[in-house]
Automatic annotation (TrEMBL):
One Pfam family in the UniProt entry: MS_channel_1st
Keyword terms: Cell membrane, Membrane, Transmembrane, Transmembrane helix
Source species: Peribacillus simplex
Keyword Repeat found: no
Positions of the Mechanosensitive ion channel MscS domain: 117-180
Cellular localization per UniProt: Cell membrane
The protein's name in its UniProt record: Mechanosensitive ion channel family protein
Amino acid sequence: MDRIYDNVTKEILDEKIWLLMGEGIIKIFLVLLLSRIIIRIGKTVISKFFAVRLRSPIRVSERRETTLIKLLENIVTYVINFIALIMILEIFSFDVKALLAGAGILGLAVGFGAQSLVKDIITGFFVIFEDHFSVGDYIKINTFEGEVIEIGLRTTKIKSGAGELHFIPNGSIIQVTNYSILNSMAVVDVTIPNDGSVERAEKVLIDLLNSMEGKYEALVRAPEFLGIEKISPEEIVFRIKAETKPMHHIEISRILKKEISAALDSSGIKSTYNGSES
């Protein structure tokens, strides 16, 4: 018994074991440190590459570039981390080749039960390369609506107006409505009393709308006076339409109501409003 105890104690105190453990820990630390440095360098190279493309006459849209940058950064991170894991396993003397071969066979068996994962990845590729939507776009997927925060190969992250973060598997994306590609339209209905002030109100509105040309950055062109939309013995409804940059229709609708109210009030004409946006 004493001999066994002495042998165990000797092994514990053996300098070679401690040296090997210390060497292994140092190697693992260096692998992790090197992987972090390579990931950071890779992300910097990607950012620099797209920064150079900003000055190129041939380039894709800014929204698409943002999406591709995030995707490439994720791919670099996954690949480097996988290589670092393999190197750490080799430090622990694992037979990596046998492990990878076994993982391939196991993956083939598991693949039949992971069809949804494969579907998510394939759909993610099509979403990105067909440019259905990009990071920063305001979209609606199924019942979820909000700003796209990140597009991954498996999931898409959407932040709603209330601050909720939705993780949507790409494979479940059946229908997408993108509000950020085409210009939006703000429509405002102005109601005035039917008291004989129609022509005066029309002139006030037309002069006001023409003066708004170039006044607001979100306006594509001067708002358009469409004329009388409804008429009754008590009131008359004018309709005004304004083309805006994507997702600025609500902002311009509110500005129109404020400007129109001030212009009509200064002319002694009472008014009410009903606005719609598209």
